[in-house]
Specification:
The structure is a homodimer.
Chain A (H helix, E strand, L loop, with lengths): L18 H9 L5 H21 L3 H17 L6 H8 L2 H9 L37 E10 L9 E5 L20 E5 L5 E7 L4 E2 L5 H8 L5 E2 L2 E7 L6 E7 L18 E2 L2 E2 L2 H7 L2 H4 L6 E9 L2 H18 L4 E4 L2 E4 L3
Parallel strand pairs in A: 1-11, 8-9
Antiparallel strand pairs in A: 1-4, 2-3, 2-7, 5-6, 7-8, 10-11, 12-13
Amino acid sequence: MDPSQVKLPPIMDMNAETITENTIAINAGNQDPRAKYVLERLVHHLHDFARETRLSTQEWMTGIEFLTAVGQTCTDVRQEFILLSDVLGLSLLVDAIDHPKPPASTEGTVLGPFHTHEAELVVPGTQISKDEQGEPLLVLCTVKDTQGRPIDDVMVDIWETDSGGFYDVQHADKDGPDGRCAMRSDKDGRFWFKAIKPVSYPIPHDGPVGKFLKGVYRHPYRPAHMHFMFEKPGFDKLVTAVYDRVDPYITSDAVFGVKDSLIVDFWPLESAVATDYLSESERENISAWSILRYDFVLVSEEEAGSLRDLNSMAALARLGKRMKVYNGLPVPEVD
Amino acid sequence: MDPSQVKLPPIMDMNAETITENTIAINAGNQDPRAKYVLERLVHHLHDFARETRLSTQEWMTGIEFLTAVGQTCTDVRQEFILLSDVLGLSLLVDAIDHPKPPASTEGTVLGPFHTHEAELVVPGTQISKDEQGEPLLVLCTVKDTQGRPIDDVMVDIWETDSGGFYDVQHADKDGPDGRCAMRSDKDGRFWFKAIKPVSYPIPHDGPVGKFLKGVYRHPYRPAHMHFMFEKPGFDKLVTAVYDRVDPYITSDAVFGVKDSLIVDFWPLESAVATDYLSESERENISAWSILRYDFVLVSEEEAGSLRDLNSMAALARLGKRMKVYNGLPVPEVD
């Protein structure tokens, strides 16, 4: 770069007071108002964090080493930064901000690091788990809009662990997807499948995030749950999960995902229902089966967008900020 | 972990308002008041950043992917997270907080990611650069305390790039340390060596930090400089560098390191001085040589500690925080 072309504010003699506004000024070259605003708040909070703690060089280096270890723990099938975001409550917060839910709709929760795009598209009634140790479970669901109308052709992703508490991708010797599938809702908004009863399990805690949890005396467990993701053009993408009411970790989920409206009961499967959904050989073992029913309610993109803008403007006004919506996201009213 | 042993506040039904205090509560198991305070401020600022920007899931994922790439760019000889901290002004800020300097002393600046511990301990007068393309430079320095008394036996680390702007560790085929050394000050606080005149150079910008700089239209250049680090028991460790006054990037250092008091002039070497320091064969080419003189002033550990406490308490009081010093670092007065 030709130095004569440098169009930056002169940056010299920085100290603990001047560094923030100058960093923000030199970063302001990007003309996208949203990028500029996000970056400005990032630098502001990063610096305020250091100033309010009077962060020492040694603590800073501990942070550098921790983040490096988190990055180096990531692989194609392990996302330690998402895990870190999860245990710090950031994932739940971002979901709450970005996918606001009107009262009648299904609440969202954390995606977690184990969703993949390799689930097979299956037909209704498929058993999604190959784990013979798992307790068999019949799952009957519907998906509707906020007016109670069934939504057909919704792409539903479902994923759960095996009975040992591990997702397929956590097994080095895995042989194709297991404990996960994709399916489409039918014309009445129904979808159903066979699975295994979810179990509680620890999030991966042999890495830096596990060390962090240990350091603050937190356990790494998530209560038993099953993940669902719903996508259909015109509807706000819903990432959610349902949680087992009787799980011992139900009030201390390591990633803050549990919501009262997402807590479910697994009931013994009644033979009248079994007749409609299980094969003859499956029915022979009916006492081993449980049933889960859940009715999901999706929010339209329009509803979600309006509510998001409304919530954003209200929350930012409470913070004393004058903002406007730009490409669906807030930026300062006067830049 | 036995769930009956879980001694955590019940965490359920988290939303954008309640998630912060609950995350802080569940993290408060560590009884060290400093760790608790730092973590509390970290969660607070991380969440406020998301709330003030109304961070979208897509932006959050961009952040996750960016941090992952930063971590995965780190190697034994490349520290991309330090580079990120440098270009965000955090490194300079932490140095300013942790190593306060009374007026008469030498200011500190960013360490950067290229210090190593493999520099050879050399005798006075050693040529530390093997680069024959570099312009030869004689460096005459002293190191004193704030009362003007020479300090002997200070361990001084010195490092600079080659004439192409690369540190030894950036060459895949490097053959032992080059452009760096360690030496000790003599009984009169003097140390001197031969080197090459530093050149401006871009920080590594083929990775995620380089992409970030490009995205905000910042150049990756640092003005020509030479790094120095001083260590002696009883004195506050000084990490600093001196910068070439005539460098075109002197007011736009990519890592905010330049301070007026650290700007130097490289003068032509006078023959009267050359007689004392150069060999006969070196003197034959005297017109190629420059000279750099600099007198460093170290702060005692005691002075630095008192000033650090004083500055911290004053800065935190201005923020309306009632704090006390605990193991040399601030924690809330009433916890």
